[in-house]
Amino acid sequence: MKTVLVGVGQAGGKLTTALASFDEQMGFNAVRDALAVNTASADFQSIPLETLLIGQDQVNGHGVGGDNELGAKIMQDDLHQVMSALSSRISAETEAIFVVSGLGGGTGSGGAPVLASRLTEVYDIPVYGLGVLPGSNEGSLYQINAGRSLKTLAREADALLLIDNDAWKDSGESMSEGYAAINKNIARRVGILLGAGESPECVAESVVDSSEIINTLRSGGIASLGYASTPAAEDAAENINVITSTTRNAMLTGGSLPGATKADSALVIIAGESERISRKGVEKARKWVETETESMQVRGGDFPIESNRLASLILLGGVERSERIQRFMTRAEQAATEAAEVEKEAPDDPKETFQNDDLDGLF
Ligand code: GDP
Q1: How many CA atoms lie within 13 A of 5 on its CB side?
Q2: Which of 67, 116, 136, 323 has the most crowded Cβ, counting Cβ within 10 A?
Q3: 196 φ/ψ angles, rounded to the nearest 5 degrees
Q4: Ligand 1 atom closest to Cα of 43?
């Protein structure tokens, strides 16, 4: 799918970089252009993409902290700059725009919904959000920010592909050391999705194309992505079970929103060498996904790539009824209620708060 990426905020910029470099490394050429937008100039140091600093009048390149309302305001104020930087990148061949951000922070959390809203007004092509949910060990501000941002972005974008930061981390890593690994995992999985349909071998009828991704996301709301891969036998006939069991793993243990299985629509993509892909296996896998998602709208197809493995990628559209989302929203709402109570209990005089503080001084 010929895509233009806009990363907003720190996580947005880093993920956009990871996606663009995976696409280049694989030679998919699905990522046609990319831009990183931020209010913090220091975050650009590790970003080899075109960058655009916004909010200079308000925050002078220092970022917005965790203030996503300020993030939203700055994006609104500087929208014309961002839109004009994007207008030269979005062309007649662009099939989709992805606005990429961490939903728990400030710049991306607040800015992404504002930008997505404007982009959907101006362009006829789909505008998708790619949003990262804070891990469960992150503080309540992140959860509240993400809850508010997620609601708004899901409404403003044509669909919001959500990735839980707990989902694709490699075991044993702390959050901060783990970002690079998580970003790599996201880039591989989302990168294969974008690459589907861009394959030069795109001749067989069974090969997935961009319109199937767009149709799967057409119902809007929240989407998720599942992924698993397994070594494959040389012969397609021996890979029927490989395909069905890899698809089960992609859905049940490899999802970007763990536990989200009920969906309005789905697309099952089997990536690997054409000679190794069993048609019967793909059809069985598609049928299994139909039962599991309780959706009658399940598409299936191949993505021919050179590999001695077979991968199953499952895009689910309309997963907001899933328990995972409900649990996250409850967590965000609880955090918001607790924060409001703390504020209510706090005495009006800040001096009193300081004196009452249970925290011991250093001396
Ligand atoms: P912003 O710059 O104000 O938009 O804030 P951030 O992009 O730093 O957003 C903070 C949220 O994004 C937190 O929930 C972090 O866990 C998450 N985050 C920050 N950096 C990364 C990253 O490189 N990868 C991933 N997956 N998440 C990140």
Answers
A1: 32
A2: 116
A3: -60, 130
A4: 2
DSSP E strand boundaries for 22-144: 31-38, 50-53, 96-102, 127-133
> How far is ligand 1, taken at its centre, from the CA of residue 105, in Å?
6
Q: How far is the CA of 14 from the centre of ligand 1 (A)?
A: 9
Of 109, 143, 148, nearest to 335 by C-alpha is 143
The Cβ of residue 186 has, within 10 Å, a number of other Cβ atoms equal to 26
What's the CATH code, domain 218-317?
3.30.1330.20
Separation of 147 CA from ligand 1 center, angstroms?
14
Pocket of ligand 1 (CB under 6 A): 9-12, 14-15, 64, 101-102, 104-109, 132, 134, 138, 142, 165, 179, 182-183
- Tell me which CATH code domain 3-195 carries: 3.40.50.1440
180 CA closest ligand 1 atom index = 23
Average pLDDT, integer, range 83-99: 97
Beta partners for residue 132, in sequence order: 102, 163
Q: Which residues, at least 6 apart from 324, have a Cβ–Cβ distance to it below 8 Å?
A: 164, 257, 258, 259, 260
pTM as predicted: 0.92
Extents of the domains making up the chain: 3-195, 218-317
Q: Per-residue pLDDT tens for 162-182?
A: 999 999 987 766 766 789 999
Strand partners, 209: none
